[in-house]
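[recover] target loaded
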């Protein structure tokens, strides 16, 4: 692509070198530069891209986009100075791939909990309604029937646009993507054109990255601040910050809620481990999903689908045929009558909602045994909060390891223990080995009891000291149950 075309819509501060030249590729990793590449020097969290300008040139880069020119300029190279290279990369990636988000009806969903469920529900709904769709989520990336492994909740701008360009080529007309706070803060969604944006909720998470809750909230809000007047923004009125998200958006705003009047109103009529009977905007339907938090997920998916032009009736019909999202309130019923629930809940709010949903369904004759841990090298402030919630709302809480990463599992568990109130000391135990913790839960459980294994959900690995070891909660439950019930 010609460099001048590639730079369209990108405010530049200074240019040194030839503008009328062809670019062979756009990269933000100097190791990927080849003859004729444009290299974007990102000021990253862990690496400073400006230090790799010369290595990218040695690999063949002919154009450098940076925030500061290097001390010595190569006469054969074009240097483009911009205010923020991360923002510029989003626009460059969109231009390079032919602005694919403008050729799709793109929905972005942000919030602390529920993003994966809502986006997956929407992908499945529109697929059932006969459309070719693309999904970008924590679990995987999908283009129609093609499934690719996920590397990030919100991948880098080049990956997003490459996936969307392929989706356009394959005839897709709808795209659904999770928009994480990291992705927003690092401008990975810059240059994308959103038709609809949805807000789930905001609770305590990622403070290791954002430092304060206010910083986290402002990052989420900036996603809606950046929407155009052609977009629709849909917010959760039951979340105390739901209205805050809409304060400065140019988009048309819509609301959804269970507890107050809204454009899209929902109500749970009945629920058990097989599913729920729900009431949305005056219409009843049955879903195999269960849990009050899933009512919110379904209601937002319903609102998005209707705003994208489908009728309420056809959306609810499609919803009634949907299966559960992998690792989200996934139920495994043993032949011994024990219910196992596997869920990704890894924040205080998600764990509390999950436990409340189970307690709402159970008759109290059954015991609720919760196995969970907290990830290492992540927000430490949530650990005692999760310990307090688990001990208070479970019959027995078994504290164990999650993905300790570079931290000591025992020290993580001590920080979880610190939040448990004295009156609940008899309601928890510690087994650092996750497999042994699940084994203990199975031993303790009796017919009709519920064993919740939380924190990892769909994940098929456990990360310890930089190494990912195969570990799937669902597989472990099945293997141990088979072994122990002989």
């Amino acid at each position: 692509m010609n460099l001048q075309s590639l730079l369209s819509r990108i405010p530049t501060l200074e240019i040194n070198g030839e503008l009328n030249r062809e670019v062979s590729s756009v990269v933000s990793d100097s190791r990927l530069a080849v003859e004729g590449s444009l290299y974007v020097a990102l000021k990253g969290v862990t690496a400073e891209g400006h230090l790799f300008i010369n290595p990218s040139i040695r690999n063949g880069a002919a154009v450098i986009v940076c925030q500061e020119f290097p001390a010595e300029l190569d006469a054969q190279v074009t240097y483009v100075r911009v205010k923020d290279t991360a923002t510029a990369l989003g626009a460059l990636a969109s231009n390079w791939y032919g602005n694919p988000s403008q050729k799709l009806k793109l929905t972005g969903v942000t919030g602390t909990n529920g993003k994966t469920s809502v986006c997956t529900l929407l992908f499945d709904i529109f697929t059932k309604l006969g459309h070719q769709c693309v999904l970008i989520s924590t679990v995987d990336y999908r283009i129609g029937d093609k499934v690719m492994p996920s590397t990030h909740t919100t991948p880098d701008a080049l990956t997003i646009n490459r996936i969307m360009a392929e989706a356009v080529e394959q005839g897709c007309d709808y795209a659904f993507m999770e928009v994480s706070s990291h992705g927003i803060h690092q401008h990975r969604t810059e240059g994308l054109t959103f038709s609809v944006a949805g807000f789930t909720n905001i609770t305590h998470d990622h403070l290791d990255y954002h430092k304060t809750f206010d910083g986290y909230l402002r990052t989420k809000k900036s996603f809606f601040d950046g929407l155009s007047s052609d977009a629709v923004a849909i917010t959760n009125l039951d979340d105390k910050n739901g209205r805050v998200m809409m304060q400065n958006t140019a988009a048309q705003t819509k609301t959804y809620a269970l507890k107050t009047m809204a454009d899209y109103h929902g109500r749970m009529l009945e629920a058990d481990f097989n599913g729920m009977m729900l009431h949305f905007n005056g219409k009843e339907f049955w879903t195999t999903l269960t849990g009050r938090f899933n009512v919110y997920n379904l209601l937002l998916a319903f609102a998005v689908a209707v705003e994208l032009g489908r009728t309420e009736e056809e959306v609810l019909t499609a919803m009634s045929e949907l299966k559960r999202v992998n690792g989200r309130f996934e139920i495994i019923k043993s032949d011994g009558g024990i219910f196992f629930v596997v869920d990704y809940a890894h924040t205080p709010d998600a764990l509390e909602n999950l436990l409340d949903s189970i307690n709402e369904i159970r008759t109290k004759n059954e015991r609720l045994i919760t196995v969970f841990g907290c990830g290492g090298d992540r927000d430490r402030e949530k650990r005692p909060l999760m310990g307090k919630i688990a001990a208070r709302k479970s019959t027995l809480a078994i504290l164990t390891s999650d993905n300790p990463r570079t931290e000591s599992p025992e020290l993580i568990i001590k920080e979880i223990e610190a939040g448990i109130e004295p009156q609940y000391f008899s309601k928890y135990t510690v087994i650092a080995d996750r497999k042994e913790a699940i084994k203990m839960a199975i031993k303790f459980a009796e017919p009709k009891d519920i064993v919740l294994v939380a924190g990892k959900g769909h994940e098929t690995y456990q990360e310890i000291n930089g190494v990912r070891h195969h570990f799937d909660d669902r597989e472990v439950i099945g293997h141990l149950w088979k072994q122990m019930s002989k």
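[recover] notes: The mean pLDDT is 94.
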